[in-house]
Amino acid sequence: MDLKGFGLSDKPRNSPYTLEAQSSLLAKFMESEKVKKLTVVGNSMGGAIAIQLGIDRPDLAQHIVLINSAHDPKMFNTQLRTFVKFMKAAVPAVGLFAPVVNEKSVRFYLPKIYGNENYEITTEDVRAYVAPYMEGTESHRAFVAAFEGMLWNNLTEHLKSIQSRVLILWGARDNLLPVKYGEVLHKSLPQSAYFVHPTGGHHLQEEEPEWVAEHIEKFLGPQ
User: Fold this and answer.
1) Cα separation, 184 vs 163, whole angstroms
2) Looking at CB atoms within 10 Å, which of 36, 71, 115, 150 has the fewest?
């Protein structure tokens, strides 16, 4: 599903994009669909939201799968923080940042999130990433708001309260969220299983879908 502010979902202005807000919205969606228990799989920011759901609603998140998951503001490097500051400064004024997000710039940036140098980035991949940012600047505002929400929320302090079974998958070549944080997350969740792909990057589920699927299937197999 596309969370609020991302993909093709609504991107309302002056609406909270914190982890708590996204977790609450996800829980309401599950309740409206009459889903009692399920496995929540999240990558990066989506992982942080999955963790927050596990904290807020352990009755709904029976299992949690975290793929290169954000959980601690210390994870974000100076380059990424500077990028977001620039984005925040440009967007509210006159949308100066919007023209910078195009197929050319995205194609330049995408290789940085993949660990395997031979991973083929197709035109369809590029256009899928660009699409939400072609409708004005609301997507930019939403992204900045969501990122800032993570900067003010250190989930590490609350991990011990998670009752769900947890699977952690990480790419050893993740340039955005280094693998050392996967090890920290694993140690903070004694009930977790942890696996690292030697050549995977930040979007492990795109680079190594079979590897990810295999580990999830084993994790969800007969207990």
Assistant:
1) 18
2) 36
Q: Measured between alpha carbons, how far is 44 from 48 in angstroms, rounded to an integer?
A: 7
Domains of the chain in start order, with CATH, are 19-219 (3.40.50.1820)
> Both tokens of residue 45?
């920011």
Kindly report, residue by residue over 178-217, the tens digit of the pLDDT: 999 999 999 999 889 999 999 999 999 999 999 999 999 9
Q: What burial class does residue 68 get, using C-beta atoms within 10 Å of its C-beta: 0-12 exposed, 13-18 middle, 19+ buried?
A: buried
Is this model's pTM higher than 0.70 or not?
yes
Q: Which 8-state DSSP code applies to residue 37?
A: S
Q: What is the full DSSP assignment across 179-218?
A: THHHHHHHHH-TTEEEEEETT--S-HHHH-HHHHHHHHHH
